[in-house]
Amino acid sequence: MTQQTGIPIYSIISGSGSYLPSRAIRNADFLDHTFYNDEGVKLEQTNEEIISKFTAITGIFERRYVTADLVASDIAFFAAEAALLDAGTDPEQLDYIIFAHNFGDVREDTRSSDLVPALASRVKSRLGIKNTATVCYDLPFGCAGWLQGIIQADLYIRSGEAKKILVIGAETLSRITDPHNRDCMLFADGAGAVVLEACQSKFPVGILSHSTRTYADQAYVLKMGSSNHPEPFLPEQLVLKMQGRTLYEHALKAVPALIRETMDKAGLAIENMNTLLIHQANRKMDEAILKRVYQAFGCQEIPEKIMPLTVETLGNSSVATLPTLYDLISKGELPGYQIKGGDQLVFASVGAGINVNAIVYRVPELIK
């Protein structure tokens, strides 16, 4: 791309890819679990009752787990390779690889986090990139990490520092959850990636605006701790702990407000939003956020097919939910949804921190 003086630079998604693990874990697979509360007391309800209530609240009845031979950097490589192929991008041309995750490579046998070297560097190695100017780093930012990687990449591109950036989100939450906590049924594994590329345009296109907030007063609604089992098999092993209700209540306040702020920055009215791509935490929370977004604009009626959901069959794969959702829609693999040139998309996410972010994205008219 030849620089043309005076023409603004925007960031567009030129390709995407994803990897969905082959192991489908259904809710019935949790019938043989023994669940305890946070005090280590066995729950009185039957597992049938626990699972039925869980399904009604979250909408999840299936999720994906990686096979024993794979770790996060493996599935990230699969997604990255697919995204580069989709974009028609030579990996040697990448200026950055940003890899959003939170727990590193967690092997099936040890269940401990392996973070050195950086997972982004591992992906670069697997891609065979020799260019030393392809800078790699990891981004731990909770479930909002992939979207924050997109925001950082946009800033690099708009500054002229970079032209092509690979942004990956991958996680294997099945390796760090507590099988004795009901919350374990929420979480899943997966990987998604996009190539973000510089585009000169006289008219606004690609990423139009973005916003991020960190609410440190609520930082520990997600943390690592001991298993709910009163005598855990590995007492030194930390597992993911969540105060679900507190996180839910905070998300309902913070996410709609930030979406409104980001849309206002882009001059986007609610009736001009074609699709809301939101972190797939659970169905009830996402639907409540959608309702409040429309209320924030003084609207009570919500259009059909405005917010696609994959959480029912893919679960909550943290940083991977948004890039896999985008990839499925862009490839025509999510029935009832499509992405067309000129569409105006809003991406939003919330995660540990508590970190909340959003972007407004206008799809280029010329897309594959």
Instruction: Quote the beta fraction.
Output: 15-25%
| Low-confidence regions | none
Count every beta strand, where a strand is a DSSP E run of 2 or more residues: 15
Fraction in helix: 25-40%
Order of helices and strands: EEHEHEEEHEHEEEEEHEHHHEE
Give the terminus-to-terminus CA distance. Answer: 19 Å
Q: Treating each run of at least 4 consecutive H or I residues as one helix, how many helices?
A: 8
Biggest sheet details:
5 strands, mixed
Record the strand order, biggest sheet. Answer: 1-9-8-4-7
Please give a structural write-up.
With 368 residues, the chain is α+β, with helices and mostly antiparallel strands. The protein has eight helices and 15 strands. The protein has helices spanning 47-58, 72-87, 119-127, 145-159, 244-266, 283-296, 311-314, 321-330; strands at residues 9-19, 23-26, 62-65, 96-100, 105-106, 113-114, 135-139, 164-172, 189-200, 206-214, 222-225, 239-242, 275-278, 344-351, 355-362.
